[in-house]
Amino acid sequence: MIARRSAAAAACAAALALAACGGSDEPARPGGKGQPPDPNDKRAVALDCIVNKEGLDARLVGEKDIQVGLVDIGPRIEFLISSGEAEGRQFQGDAQGAEQIGSALLFLNDGSEDDLEKVERCLDDQ
Fold first, then answer.
1. Among residues 109, 124, 114, which one has the least CA distance to residue 45?
2. Cα 125 from Cα 119, distance rounded (Å)
């Protein structure tokens, strides 16, 4: 009985050790490590395009946003469920200074014209 418990404990310890191998503290990025983003995830597809195709520094923020460059300086993209929801946000005055592109709201901030064109291309591709 004791031998079985020891063997079971050793097997569990080995399984845990193997599960921890190869991990990384770096968060997964859509399109990273040879994996294309899920085509149904518009935010992941846009981030992959912005970073890997257009070469801009960008990151996921919260549940719905992508921040390009520095906060409050670079463009911010908020993804909504539908283009109707994005249009409604603008109509209600909740998206002042934003450009609607499909179901996304692009907040320009102080982004350069070149960066904004790159981001717009990625959003237009969806």
1. 124
2. 10
Q: Say what the pTM is.
A: 0.71
**Which tokens hold the place of 57?**
């520094």
Phi, psi of 38 (to 5 degrees): -65, 120
CA distances from 83 to 58, 100, 104, 112 (A): 23, 8, 7, 25
Strands (E), the chain: 58-61, 65-68, 76-79, 98-101, 104-107
Look up residue 60 and give its two tokens.
Answer: 């996921």
Q: What confidence tens digit (pLDDT) does each residue in 35-48 have?
A: 899 999 999 999 99
- How far from chain centre, in Å, is Cα 80? 13
What pLDDT, in 10s, does the model give residues 95-118? 988 999 999 999 999 999 999 999
CA angle 30/122/61 to nearest 5° reads: 50
DSSP 41: -
Q: How far apart are CA 32 and CA 48, in angstroms?
A: 8
From residue 19, how far is each of 14, 24, 39, 81 by CA, in Å?
9, 12, 28, 36
